[in-house]
Amino acid sequence: MSAQSYDTFVLAFSDPAINSADPQRARVDGNSSFEIFDDSHVQTLSSNNGEGDIEGLLYVPDLLPSDLCFHMSTSYIPINVTRLSDLPATEYLYVAIAPWISARCALSYLAAAQGATAFMFYHPDNGSSTPPPVSDPSWDLGDGGRWKAQNKFPVYAIPGLEGAIIMQELAQYNGNSSNPLIQGILAYEQFDQSDYVRLYTSFGTDGSSNLPSLWAFLLIVLGIVIVLIGTTSFSMHFFQRRHRNALRRRVERGEVDLESLGIKRSTPVSQEEIDKLPTYIYTPSSDTPKETTANPPNHSSPASSDPLPSQTFYSQSSCTICLEDFIPNEDKVRSLPCHHIYHPQCIDTHLSSRSSRCPVCMAQVLPRKNEPITYAMVRAERRIRERERRERGEDADGQWSSNLRGRFESGRRVFSMPVPHVFSGSNNEHTRSQIEMDTVGGGARAASSPLRLPNLATLEMSGAQSEDPRLPPANGYPRRALILRQATRPRPGQSLEDEETERWARMPTWRRALGTIFPGFR
Amino acid sequence: MAQKRIAKEYSELQKKPLEGMKISLPSEADMHQWQILIDGPKGSPYEGGVFTLHLSLPTEYPFKPPTLSFKTKIYHPNVTNDDKGSMCLGMLRADEWKPSSKIDAVLSFAKALLLEPQADDAVEGGIAREYKENKKEFVKNAKAWTKQYAKR
Question: For the region Disordered, what residue ranges are annotated (chain A) (predicted)?
C-alpha cells in the first residue's frame, strides 16, 4: 500500500523484557521534544506487503564494516544513532531509515533491513522539501524493479531535508538515562529510569485517496462514462418526451389518428360511450335536424351545441353499413363526431364489436385524451409522416408549423383527388355509390376538421375504381398511397402497439433496461 | 342485416354488372358464397383467360371482411400458388376492413390487381422478385399459365 503521510515522533515506553505483562507507552509531546509530520511529500517506491498499520521504532540498519557503503555512510549517519541493538528485541515493530547514497548502497541497506515493517529512504544531498518522483532515475536500482519483490516490506521516500533532520534526532533520542535528554523525558512522563525513549514512525495509508493510480484512472474513466450515459439518456428522454407531447397535442386536436395509421390497436367502444353519441330523426328538409329525446339530456354532445352542417348531413342519404336509404322523418340516425350518420343498430354493432373508428373515414369516435403514447409510437408516426412527405416529393424540412401543414394538406386532398364530384351537393341522389359516399365523407371532414391524413378509404376506393368507366383514370397517386399504406403496416392484422408489446415481452432483461435508459435505442 | 345487405349488393351487381365479370350463386340457398368469373383484363398477361373466383361472406358481414380466392390457378405475386389460391388484398384484412366497403369495390380491386400486381406486398416472393427484376420472364410465365389453366 502506498503511503500518504508519515509521522515521526518521540515515544517513551517501558522495557518489554522487564514488564511485558503491563506495557507502558506514552507519546511525548512534540512541542517539548521532536516530531515531523508530512502528509504531502511521501513517495512510495515499493508498496510491497504494505498492509495494515505500517509503523514501528525507527532505526538505521547495520552494514558490515567490510561493505564499502559502511564508510560512505559515515558522513550522513551520526555515530550514536539508534541501531537495532538499541531497541527492545520483542513486542515492537521496526522501521528502517537510511540515506540513499547510491543504488548499490540502497541494495545493501535493504538487505540489512530484513525484519523491518518498512523502509524510509532520503536523498541526503538533496535539500529540497520534496523527494524526486518515483519515476525519477535516481531511484533506479538497475535491476528493472526486481528488488521490490525481493523485499517483503514497503519502501518509502521522504524529503532529503526531513531525512537528515530525523537522522540527527535519531542520535539524540537514543541511549539510556545517562543521556540527560532521555532522563528528563522519562522523569517528566513518570517512567522508570530504565525505560526507553526512542523515535517512532507511523505511515498514513488510510482512506480511499491512496488507491493505486491505475484504479484512480479507471474510476475517472468510469465516472466519465456514467456522466456521458447520464447526459445521453437525459437528452434522449428530453427529446422523445418533447416529440411525444407534440404528438399528443396533435392527437388531441384531431390532426392525427394513430389507430388508422396502424400504430395503436383498435379498442371497441363501451355501450356507455356509444350512448353519449347524439341521435337524430332523419329529415330531408333543410331544417336543422332535431335531436331525439333518446339522447341523454345531461350530456352536452358536440352536435347539440354545434349543429351539424346541413350540407354534410343531407348528402348522406343511406346508411353505409346496411346500404338502406334513411327514411325521412322516421329513421333514427346516430351521428359520429366526424358527422357521418348511420342507423344506430348498424353503427352500434360496429363500435361495440369491431373498432372505435368511423367505418367511412376511420376517424376516432372516442375522445382522444390522456391516451398512453409510447416512444415507439412517436417514432412510427414520424417515419410514416416523413415517408408520406417523400412520396409527395416535398422537402423534408419539417419547419412548417403543423397547423399550416394541416391546412395545406387537407386543401390539397380536396382539390387534387381524382374524383370529380367531391361536393356534388345533391341531397337525395338515391343511386349514389359507395365511392361517392366515401369521398363526400372525406371532403366534409377536411372542411370541418383539419385532419391531415390522406383519406385512405377514398384512396383505396378510387384506386380500385381506376378501371371503372364512370370515373376518370386515377393519376397514380392513390395507388402509390395504397402501397405506402401497406408497406407501413408492421404485419397484417396487427397494430404497431401489439407488435411493440410482443417485442418487449420477447426481449431479454438487459435489452429492456437499455431501452428504458435510451428511449431512442432500437 | 347481413342477408339483407348481401342480397342488396348482389341485386345491384346483377342490375349493373362490373365490366368483364359474371357473378353467380353456386347455391341459390346460400347467399354467403359467390362465384365470380373474371376476364383477364386487356393489356395484362392474363388477357384471353377467364378466372373463377370464390367470394365467401361471413355471417358477421359487413362487420367482418369477406374472403376472396382464385379457383383457377394464376401466376401472380399476390395470389398464393396452392389449391386455396388466397388473394392478398389490403382492404380485406381484418383490421383494415371497413363495413362501408362494398363488394363491387373488392372485386374492382381484384381486377386492378390483375392489371398491376403489387410486388411489394406479395404472398409469392419468387414471382414478386421476377416481376420486379425480370418483367419479360414474368409476362411469359403468366401468359403460359393463363393459356394452360384459364382457357375459356
Answer: 280-311
| Domain membership flag for residue A54 | yes
* Cβ <8 Å between A486 and B98: no
State the CB neighbour count (10 A cutoff) for residue A169: 21
Tell whether A276 and A337 lie within a shared domain.
Answer: yes
Residue B14 one-letter amino acid: Q
Cβ distance A485 to B99 less than 8 Å, yes or no, reads: no
Indicate which CATH number applies to the domain containing A466. 3.30.40.10
Q: Are residues A194 and A270 in the same domain?
A: no
Q: A430 or A135: which carries more pLDDT confidence?
A: A135
A479 in the same domain as A333:
yes
* Residue A191 forms part of a structural domain: yes
Amino acid at residue number B151: K
Q: How far is A242 from chain B (nearest CA, A)?
A: 30
**Which residue in A128, A112, A117, A91 sits closest to A13, CA to CA?**
A91
Q: Is residue A258 part of a domain?
A: no
Q: How confident is the model over A167-209, as pLDDT tens digits?
A: 999 998 988 888 888 888 888 888 888 888 999 999 887 544 4
Do A414 and A465 belong together in one domain? yes
Here the cell at position A378 is 412517436
Both A105 and A150 in a single domain? yes
Question: Which architecture does CATH list for B2-149?
Answer: Roll (3.10)
B58 touches chain A (CB under 8 A): no
**Residue A414: how many CB atoms within 10 A of its CB?**
18
- Looking at the structure, do residues A297 and A409 belong to the same domain, yes or no? yes
Say whether both A17 and A44 belong to one domain. yes
Contact A467/B at CB under 8 A: yes
Per-residue pLDDT tens for A459-508? 334 333 333 344 333 333 344 334 434 434 444 456 777 777 788 888 88
Answer whether residue A190 is part of any domain: yes
How many CB pairs below 8 Å do chains A and B form together? 94
Distance from CA of A433 to the nearest CA of B (A): 10
User: ipTM beyond 0.95?
Assistant: no
Write out pLDDT tens, residues A71-130.
888 889 998 999 998 988 878 899 999 999 888 899 999 999 988 989 999 998 877 778
* Grid cell of A165 as nine digits: 533532520
Same domain, A344 and A277: yes
Cα-to-chain-centroid distance, residue A507: 19
Distance CA(A120)–CA(A202), nearest Å, equals 11
B111 to A467: CB separation less than 8 angstroms, yes or no: yes
Tell me the mean pLDDT in the region B128-151. 89
Domain limits for position A53: 3-207
Report yes or no: B99 at the A interface, CB cutoff 8 Å: yes
Option in A320, A349, A493 nearest B94 (CB): A493
Q: How many domains does chain A have?
A: 3
- Amino acid making up residue A19: N
The whole-angstrom distance between B66's CA and the closest CA on chain A is 14
Q: Do A437 and B100 touch (CB under 8 A)?
A: yes
Residues of A in contact with B116 (CB under 8 A): 479
How far is CA A24 from its chain centroid? 58
* More confident site: A373 or A61: A61
Q: CA-CA distance, B46 to B106, in Å (whole number)?
A: 19
C-alpha cell of B82?
Answer: 396452392
Query: Which residue in B has a C-alpha nearest to residue A495's C-alpha?
Result: B95
